[in-house]
Design brief:
By secondary structure, the protein is mainly α. It has one domain. The protein has 14 helices and no strands. Helix 6 crosses helix 7.
Length: 292
Protein backbone atom coordinates (compact mmCIF):
# COMPACT_ATOMS: atom_id res chain seq x y z
CA UNK A 1 0.00 0.00 0.00
CA UNK A 2 3.03 2.32 0.21
CA UNK A 3 3.50 2.34 -3.54
CA UNK A 4 3.44 0.48 -6.82
CA UNK A 5 7.05 -0.70 -6.59
CA UNK A 6 6.60 -2.25 -3.14
CA UNK A 7 3.44 -4.04 -4.23
CA UNK A 8 5.14 -5.26 -7.40
CA UNK A 9 8.10 -6.69 -5.49
CA UNK A 10 5.87 -8.61 -3.06
CA UNK A 11 3.57 -9.97 -5.74
CA UNK A 12 6.28 -11.00 -8.20
CA UNK A 13 8.60 -12.43 -5.54
CA UNK A 14 6.15 -15.11 -4.44
CA UNK A 15 4.27 -15.70 -7.68
CA UNK A 16 6.71 -18.35 -8.88
CA UNK A 17 7.00 -20.16 -5.55
CA UNK A 18 4.98 -23.18 -4.53
CA UNK A 19 5.34 -22.22 -0.87
CA UNK A 20 4.68 -18.47 -1.02
CA UNK A 21 2.35 -17.99 -3.97
CA UNK A 22 -0.54 -17.52 -1.54
CA UNK A 23 1.12 -14.36 -0.20
CA UNK A 24 1.37 -12.95 -3.72
CA UNK A 25 -2.25 -13.86 -4.42
CA UNK A 26 -3.48 -12.21 -1.22
CA UNK A 27 -1.36 -9.10 -1.85
CA UNK A 28 -2.72 -8.89 -5.40
CA UNK A 29 -6.26 -9.12 -4.05
CA UNK A 30 -5.54 -6.40 -1.46
CA UNK A 31 -4.29 -4.02 -4.15
CA UNK A 32 -7.30 -4.81 -6.33
CA UNK A 33 -9.76 -4.24 -3.49
CA UNK A 34 -8.18 -0.94 -2.53
CA UNK A 35 -7.00 0.50 -5.84
CA UNK A 36 -9.35 -1.07 -8.36
CA UNK A 37 -9.32 -3.75 -11.02
CA UNK A 38 -7.23 -1.74 -13.49
CA UNK A 39 -4.44 -1.14 -10.98
CA UNK A 40 -4.51 -4.78 -9.89
CA UNK A 41 -4.51 -6.04 -13.47
CA UNK A 42 -1.27 -4.22 -14.26
CA UNK A 43 0.45 -5.98 -11.34
CA UNK A 44 -1.22 -9.26 -12.26
CA UNK A 45 0.41 -9.16 -15.70
CA UNK A 46 3.84 -8.96 -14.09
CA UNK A 47 3.00 -11.82 -11.73
CA UNK A 48 2.22 -14.00 -14.73
CA UNK A 49 5.92 -14.05 -15.67
CA UNK A 50 7.23 -16.12 -12.71
CA UNK A 51 4.03 -18.17 -12.45
CA UNK A 52 4.11 -18.93 -16.18
CA UNK A 53 7.80 -19.80 -16.00
CA UNK A 54 7.10 -22.31 -13.23
CA UNK A 55 4.32 -23.82 -15.34
CA UNK A 56 6.63 -24.12 -18.35
CA UNK A 57 9.56 -25.60 -16.41
CA UNK A 58 7.80 -27.99 -14.04
CA UNK A 59 4.28 -28.27 -15.47
CA UNK A 60 2.78 -27.17 -12.14
CA UNK A 61 -0.10 -24.78 -12.76
CA UNK A 62 -0.95 -24.32 -9.07
CA UNK A 63 0.51 -20.81 -8.51
CA UNK A 64 -0.88 -19.54 -11.82
CA UNK A 65 -4.35 -20.93 -11.09
CA UNK A 66 -4.28 -19.44 -7.59
CA UNK A 67 -3.33 -15.99 -8.92
CA UNK A 68 -6.05 -16.09 -11.57
CA UNK A 69 -8.68 -17.38 -9.15
CA UNK A 70 -7.90 -14.90 -6.40
CA UNK A 71 -7.76 -12.00 -8.85
CA UNK A 72 -11.17 -12.95 -10.25
CA UNK A 73 -12.72 -13.16 -6.78
CA UNK A 74 -11.19 -9.82 -5.79
CA UNK A 75 -12.74 -8.18 -8.85
CA UNK A 76 -16.13 -9.66 -7.90
CA UNK A 77 -15.83 -8.38 -4.34
CA UNK A 78 -14.63 -4.96 -5.48
CA UNK A 79 -17.52 -4.53 -7.92
CA UNK A 80 -20.33 -6.05 -5.83
CA UNK A 81 -19.22 -5.28 -2.25
CA UNK A 82 -20.80 -8.62 -1.35
CA UNK A 83 -18.65 -11.20 0.42
CA UNK A 84 -21.25 -13.96 0.13
CA UNK A 85 -21.44 -13.56 -3.64
CA UNK A 86 -17.65 -13.46 -3.91
CA UNK A 87 -17.30 -16.73 -1.98
CA UNK A 88 -20.05 -18.25 -4.12
CA UNK A 89 -18.03 -17.30 -7.21
CA UNK A 90 -15.38 -19.71 -5.93
CA UNK A 91 -17.52 -22.54 -7.35
CA UNK A 92 -16.93 -21.14 -10.82
CA UNK A 93 -13.20 -20.89 -10.11
CA UNK A 94 -13.04 -24.53 -9.02
CA UNK A 95 -15.07 -25.89 -11.93
CA UNK A 96 -13.16 -23.78 -14.47
CA UNK A 97 -9.81 -24.91 -13.08
CA UNK A 98 -10.79 -28.57 -13.28
CA UNK A 99 -12.12 -28.26 -16.82
CA UNK A 100 -9.02 -26.39 -18.03
CA UNK A 101 -6.79 -29.08 -16.55
CA UNK A 102 -8.77 -31.82 -18.27
CA UNK A 103 -8.61 -29.98 -21.59
CA UNK A 104 -5.01 -28.75 -21.63
CA UNK A 105 -3.05 -30.63 -18.95
CA UNK A 106 -3.74 -34.29 -19.61
CA UNK A 107 -0.04 -35.16 -19.34
CA UNK A 108 0.20 -33.50 -15.94
CA UNK A 109 -2.93 -35.29 -14.74
CA UNK A 110 -1.54 -38.62 -15.95
CA UNK A 111 1.63 -37.94 -13.97
CA UNK A 112 -0.49 -37.31 -10.91
CA UNK A 113 -2.40 -40.55 -11.52
CA UNK A 114 0.91 -42.43 -11.72
CA UNK A 115 2.18 -40.74 -8.56
CA UNK A 116 -0.92 -41.62 -6.56
CA UNK A 117 -0.83 -45.15 -7.98
CA UNK A 118 2.73 -45.70 -6.77
CA UNK A 119 1.92 -44.22 -3.39
CA UNK A 120 -1.10 -46.48 -2.94
CA UNK A 121 0.89 -49.55 -3.98
CA UNK A 122 3.46 -48.76 -1.31
CA UNK A 123 0.71 -48.23 1.24
CA UNK A 124 -0.91 -51.56 0.31
CA UNK A 125 2.41 -53.35 0.75
CA UNK A 126 2.83 -51.84 4.19
CA UNK A 127 -0.68 -52.88 5.18
CA UNK A 128 -0.13 -56.42 3.85
CA UNK A 129 2.95 -56.76 6.05
CA UNK A 130 0.71 -55.94 9.00
CA UNK A 131 -1.72 -58.68 7.96
CA UNK A 132 -4.27 -56.43 6.25
CA UNK A 133 -4.94 -57.36 2.63
CA UNK A 134 -6.53 -54.19 1.28
CA UNK A 135 -6.95 -52.99 -2.30
CA UNK A 136 -7.23 -49.22 -2.31
CA UNK A 137 -9.15 -47.48 -5.13
CA UNK A 138 -7.00 -45.66 -7.71
CA UNK A 139 -7.97 -42.10 -8.61
CA UNK A 140 -8.60 -41.29 -12.26
CA UNK A 141 -7.54 -38.18 -14.15
CA UNK A 142 -10.99 -36.60 -13.94
CA UNK A 143 -11.12 -37.17 -10.20
CA UNK A 144 -7.74 -35.54 -9.68
CA UNK A 145 -8.81 -32.59 -11.86
CA UNK A 146 -11.79 -32.12 -9.54
CA UNK A 147 -9.55 -32.33 -6.48
CA UNK A 148 -7.20 -29.70 -7.87
CA UNK A 149 -10.16 -27.52 -8.82
CA UNK A 150 -11.56 -27.78 -5.29
CA UNK A 151 -8.14 -26.98 -3.80
CA UNK A 152 -7.76 -23.93 -6.06
CA UNK A 153 -11.23 -22.67 -5.16
CA UNK A 154 -10.60 -23.14 -1.45
CA UNK A 155 -7.21 -21.44 -1.53
CA UNK A 156 -8.49 -18.57 -3.71
CA UNK A 157 -11.27 -17.85 -1.21
CA UNK A 158 -8.82 -18.02 1.71
CA UNK A 159 -6.48 -15.58 -0.05
CA UNK A 160 -9.41 -13.25 -0.71
CA UNK A 161 -10.45 -13.38 2.95
CA UNK A 162 -6.87 -12.68 4.02
CA UNK A 163 -6.74 -9.68 1.69
CA UNK A 164 -10.05 -8.39 3.03
CA UNK A 165 -8.75 -8.84 6.57
CA UNK A 166 -5.63 -6.83 5.71
CA UNK A 167 -7.75 -4.11 4.12
CA UNK A 168 -9.97 -3.85 7.19
CA UNK A 169 -6.99 -3.85 9.55
CA UNK A 170 -5.39 -0.99 7.61
CA UNK A 171 -8.40 1.21 6.94
CA UNK A 172 -11.46 0.06 8.88
CA UNK A 173 -10.72 -1.99 11.99
CA UNK A 174 -13.20 -4.73 12.95
CA UNK A 175 -15.11 -4.42 9.66
CA UNK A 176 -13.92 -7.80 8.41
CA UNK A 177 -15.09 -9.67 11.49
CA UNK A 178 -18.64 -8.35 11.21
CA UNK A 179 -18.68 -8.95 7.48
CA UNK A 180 -17.44 -12.53 7.75
CA UNK A 181 -19.84 -13.45 10.57
CA UNK A 182 -22.74 -12.25 8.41
CA UNK A 183 -21.80 -14.56 5.51
CA UNK A 184 -25.04 -16.42 4.77
CA UNK A 185 -26.97 -17.81 1.78
CA UNK A 186 -30.66 -17.93 0.96
CA UNK A 187 -32.48 -21.23 0.97
CA UNK A 188 -32.55 -21.20 -2.84
CA UNK A 189 -28.77 -20.93 -3.17
CA UNK A 190 -28.15 -23.47 -0.41
CA UNK A 191 -30.63 -25.94 -1.91
CA UNK A 192 -29.16 -25.62 -5.42
CA UNK A 193 -25.60 -26.15 -4.18
CA UNK A 194 -26.65 -29.14 -2.07
CA UNK A 195 -28.64 -30.67 -4.95
CA UNK A 196 -25.70 -30.30 -7.34
CA UNK A 197 -23.36 -31.89 -4.82
CA UNK A 198 -25.72 -34.83 -4.26
CA UNK A 199 -26.20 -35.32 -8.01
CA UNK A 200 -22.46 -35.33 -8.70
CA UNK A 201 -21.80 -37.61 -5.76
CA UNK A 202 -24.35 -40.08 -7.08
CA UNK A 203 -22.64 -40.26 -10.48
CA UNK A 204 -19.76 -42.24 -9.02
CA UNK A 205 -16.30 -42.01 -7.49
CA UNK A 206 -14.84 -39.94 -10.33
CA UNK A 207 -17.29 -37.08 -9.77
CA UNK A 208 -17.18 -36.92 -5.98
CA UNK A 209 -14.28 -34.49 -5.92
CA UNK A 210 -16.35 -32.22 -8.18
CA UNK A 211 -19.21 -32.47 -5.71
CA UNK A 212 -16.94 -31.04 -3.04
CA UNK A 213 -16.53 -27.86 -5.11
CA UNK A 214 -20.25 -27.18 -4.73
CA UNK A 215 -20.01 -27.47 -0.96
CA UNK A 216 -17.17 -24.97 -0.52
CA UNK A 217 -19.42 -21.86 -0.18
CA UNK A 218 -21.64 -23.70 2.32
CA UNK A 219 -18.55 -24.70 4.28
CA UNK A 220 -17.37 -21.10 4.58
CA UNK A 221 -20.90 -20.04 5.51
CA UNK A 222 -20.81 -22.70 8.23
CA UNK A 223 -17.51 -21.43 9.60
CA UNK A 224 -18.92 -17.91 9.62
CA UNK A 225 -21.97 -19.21 11.47
CA UNK A 226 -19.77 -20.77 14.14
CA UNK A 227 -17.89 -17.50 14.62
CA UNK A 228 -21.20 -15.66 14.89
CA UNK A 229 -22.39 -18.16 17.49
CA UNK A 230 -19.28 -17.68 19.63
CA UNK A 231 -19.71 -13.90 19.54
CA UNK A 232 -23.46 -13.89 20.14
CA UNK A 233 -23.29 -16.32 23.08
CA UNK A 234 -20.17 -14.74 24.56
CA UNK A 235 -18.10 -17.91 24.36
CA UNK A 236 -14.31 -17.97 24.51
CA UNK A 237 -11.98 -18.29 21.53
CA UNK A 238 -10.92 -21.68 22.86
CA UNK A 239 -14.28 -23.05 21.81
CA UNK A 240 -13.49 -22.13 18.21
CA UNK A 241 -10.06 -23.74 18.48
CA UNK A 242 -11.58 -27.06 19.53
CA UNK A 243 -14.22 -26.77 16.85
CA UNK A 244 -11.62 -26.34 14.10
CA UNK A 245 -9.61 -29.30 15.40
CA UNK A 246 -12.67 -31.54 15.41
CA UNK A 247 -13.83 -30.19 12.04
CA UNK A 248 -10.47 -30.95 10.43
CA UNK A 249 -10.20 -34.45 11.89
CA UNK A 250 -13.69 -35.86 11.39
CA UNK A 251 -15.50 -35.88 8.03
CA UNK A 252 -18.98 -36.36 9.58
CA UNK A 253 -18.54 -33.00 11.32
CA UNK A 254 -17.97 -31.36 7.93
CA UNK A 255 -21.25 -32.82 6.69
CA UNK A 256 -23.09 -31.75 9.83
CA UNK A 257 -21.77 -28.23 9.36
CA UNK A 258 -23.19 -28.12 5.81
CA UNK A 259 -26.55 -29.37 7.08
CA UNK A 260 -26.42 -26.74 9.80
CA UNK A 261 -25.93 -24.04 7.13
CA UNK A 262 -28.89 -25.31 5.10
CA UNK A 263 -31.02 -25.20 8.25
CA UNK A 264 -29.76 -21.68 8.94
CA UNK A 265 -31.04 -20.63 5.50
CA UNK A 266 -34.53 -21.41 6.78
CA UNK A 267 -34.30 -20.49 10.44
CA UNK A 268 -31.59 -17.78 10.63
CA UNK A 269 -29.89 -18.90 13.84
CA UNK A 270 -28.05 -15.61 14.20
CA UNK A 271 -31.25 -13.80 15.09
CA UNK A 272 -32.07 -16.46 17.69
CA UNK A 273 -28.64 -16.09 19.30
CA UNK A 274 -28.88 -12.34 19.72
CA UNK A 275 -28.56 -11.26 23.33
CA UNK A 276 -28.58 -7.48 23.12
CA UNK A 277 -31.78 -5.85 21.80
CA UNK A 278 -31.30 -4.28 18.42
CA UNK A 279 -28.03 -6.08 17.73
CA UNK A 280 -28.00 -7.42 14.17
CA UNK A 281 -25.23 -9.83 13.23
CA UNK A 282 -26.79 -10.35 9.82
CA UNK A 283 -26.16 -6.77 8.75
CA UNK A 284 -23.18 -6.47 6.45
CA UNK A 285 -20.70 -3.65 6.86
CA UNK A 286 -19.83 -2.05 3.59
CA UNK A 287 -16.27 -1.75 2.36
CA UNK A 288 -14.19 1.35 2.51
CA UNK A 289 -14.81 3.94 -0.13
CA UNK A 290 -13.22 2.95 -3.41
CA UNK A 291 -10.28 4.92 -4.74
CA UNK A 292 -10.48 6.29 -8.22
Amino acid sequence: MRGRLQALLIIVAGAGSLLFCWISAAALALVTLRKGAGYGASLFMWALLPAGTLLYVSGDSGPLALLVGTMALAIVLRSTVNLSLSVLAGVGIGVSTGLVLMAFATEYLNQMVAFFGEFLITLEEQLSQEGQDVILPRPEAGQIAGMLGAATAMMSILCLLLARYWQAALYNADAFGAEFKALRYSITVSAVLAALAIALWGLGEQYRSWAMICLIPLTFAGLALMHARVEALGQSAGWLTWFYIIWLMFDPVKLLLVLFVIADSWINFRQRWLKAPGKDLDKRDEHDEKDD
